[in-house]
Prior knowledge:
The complex is a heterodimer. In chain A, 23% of the residues are buried. Chain A has four helices and no strands. The mean pLDDT of chain A is 88. Chain A starts with a helix and ends with a helix. By secondary structure, chain B is an all-alpha fold. Chain B has five helices and no strands. In chain B, helix 1 runs antiparallel to helix 2 and helix 2 packs antiparallel against helix 3. The longest helix of chain B has 34 residues. The mean pLDDT of chain B is 92. Chains A and B meet through helix 1 and helix 4 of A and helix 1 and helix 4 of B.
Amino acid sequence: MTSNKDYIQECKLFLQAFENTQALMLEMKCESAALEFESEIEVLNQLVNEMHAFLCGKDQTNKSVFLLTRQIERVNVFFKEMRGLLINLKDGGQIESSQIIMIFERQHLFKNIFRKHLADFSKLSSEL
Amino acid sequence: MNNKKKLKISNFRDIEKFHHFSNQLFDQYQSALMHGEYKQAKQLIFFIRKIETEHIRDEEDILIPIFKKHYNPVPQGSAIEFYTREHEQIVGYLNRFCDQALMWEKENPTDKIALVRLFDDHYRFKHLVEHHFTREETFLFKLLDRLAGKFENSGILNQLEIKYNGFISENDFQ
Lengths: 128, 174
């Protein structure tokens, strides 16, 4: 099991890598963005799933545990969406800049949710 | 949609057409940035700032005073400060985008993450604008239209139509 400190560190690294894929997307290098994202998300997805399993084994009547568990579930839903969007980019042939802008806006929301989870996890993980 | 298509402003709700025009220009500005066309992006964002500033001035100098005069107290969700505060925020964002565009026209960005950050800011801006336009369309314009006959509106509508069509003629960014 990854330590809380490592979990936070890995998540931060993922966010950096995620922004690199966004930069590629904004340069219209969609295929490269999708490939980078796929490899990054594989690692993080496993980590997040482990943390989810760990939290599910804790007392869910504890407010902090409940909050962090639900946040991870929300992050997971977004993971699936992000993966779907980027795979479409890889396979979709000609991509319009307006499509990229729409995807970017979903990604912005995802980053907000993920950052909020990280901030809360940093604050509350000592209680776990 | 053809950006050069003339706008017909028959009532205040028709100002939505100007909002739509401005949104389209913003999409073009983002697209120019994505294609590394920084000069084009700068021209677009400066043009957007110009037309939005004039549009805001018309609202604050003409429409809002009429609204305030006839609706006292103003309906909930329609306090005058809401409009003016959001106007200030919109102009603040546009000023920042213009400053950035000016820098990148002179020296193209080497740090690609800077572009990601700018698009994050665009998202916040678009969210604010959507919220603001909805407020205006739901309250200000709709309630001004209900006052038909209580004040001379045809002159104002005509003036706005001429101005918006002037912007459209000026728009060389198709």
